[in-house]
Amino acid sequence: MSDIITVTEENLDAEVYGASKAVLLDLWAPWCAPCRTLAPILEKLSALGGESLTIAKMDVEKYPEAMARFGVRGIPALLLFKDGKEISREVGTKTLTQLKDWMANSDIKLSEPAAIPTDTAMFGAFYGDPQLKQFFCDRLLAHAQQGEIISDNNAYWIEGSGTPGAAWVHSADPVIFERLTGLPASFSIAMDFTRPIKSAELEPIMQALKPGSDLNNVPLRLTHSLLSEALFDWQNLLSQSALITSLRNEWLGLCERYLAGNTLSEQDWKDLALRAKALNNHADPAVRNTAELISTLSPPPTANNADGWTVVFRLARTVMYSIGQHLSNWTLQDRQTEQRRWDWFNEKQSQSASGELSQEEIHAYREQWFSENEAYQLKEAVFFDNELQGLHPVLDCMRDHLATLMRGAPPFNPN
Length: 415
Known about the structure:
alpha/beta; Glutaredoxin; five-stranded mixed sheet; two-stranded antiparallel ribbon; 19 helices; about 10% strand; Thioredoxin; Thioredoxin_CS
C-alpha cells in the first residue's frame, strides 16, 4: 500500500520532479469542500498504487504561489507526473473509476483487489429493525429542518452538513452507509439524485422505506423510470436523432429483460454501447447526454458498485437538465447556447495579449454577452431561480418514482 505524501516548496523537486515512479499531485486547500470530498477517493487510489504510483498533496493555502507555478485556476487540481514531467491533468472531483481509467490511459498499472462477484443484497434495509429505521429517519429529518441537507453532485458530510445519504450516517463513505443502515450504497446515490433536501420532500421517501426490504434494484429501476417517463416528452426532446430514439427503446427493452431475471449476453450490451458512442459529438446536448447515459448503463453497474452508480447518476443529472429545459420550452438553440457561451469567452481569452482576462475585461465581456443574448440570459435566470425551479417538475416526478419503487421492493432473502 502506498502512503500519501505531503509536498512542500522544500521537497517538491525530490518528491515530484525527482520521483522514480509516477506521481499524482493533488493541489488542494482545507477550505475547499470538493477537495475534502476527493480526499478519501485519493486514499483508495493510493492503496492501488503499489510500485507504479505515488499520491502527493500540496496545500495551496500554505503555498499560494503553487497555483501560478502550475498554471492552475481552480482546485482540486490533479497533476500527473512521469519521469519528472507533467503528462496530464484533471480539475474537479472525480470518482475512483474515473481516476483508474485516467491511470490506465496513462499506462500506469494499478493493483486491483479481487472483485465481489455477487449482485445480491447483502442485508435487508435497516437489518429489518423498525427502531433502527426510526433513529436514522429522525436524524435525517432533523438535519432537513435545520437546513443542513444540501444538494450536490458529490456525496459529502463536512462540518455538520452534506448530501442526503451522507447526512443519514454522518459520512460520505459508502461502506459506512451500508454497514450502519443495511441499505446498498447505490440506493443512497439514487436518492441523492432526486434531491430531497426539505422535510416535505424526504418524508414520503422515509414512509415508503420498509425495514427488511431488498433495495438492490432500486437504482436501476429508477434510471428505467427516468428514460421511460411519458411526461418527459422523449419523442420531441430527442427529435434531432432517430438513432437515439431507437437506442433508448432498445435499452428499455434490455433492462426490462434483465430485471425480470433473464440472462443477457455481454454482446447485447456491447453492441448498444458502441452505437450510443457514435453520438458522442452530436450537436444537441439532449441527444449527446442521453446517448452517454445509455452507453454507461450498457451493462448496468452491479448494485454493490457504488462508484459505477455515482457515474451513472452524474450523467442522469445532465439528462435531467435537458428534460427540464425542454419542459420549460427551451429550443435546440437554447440548449446549445451554454457551449456557445463557453467557446465565446475562450476565444476572447485567447485573443488577450497575456492569455488571461483581467477582472475588468471579464466584466466588460459579460456585459457584452448579456446585451447580445438577452433573451437567453433571462430564460436561463428564470430556470435557475427559486432553487432551480426549472427542474421542479422533473424532480417531483422522480421522487414519486423512487417512493413507488421502495414500496414495491421485495423482502430481503438471505438465501
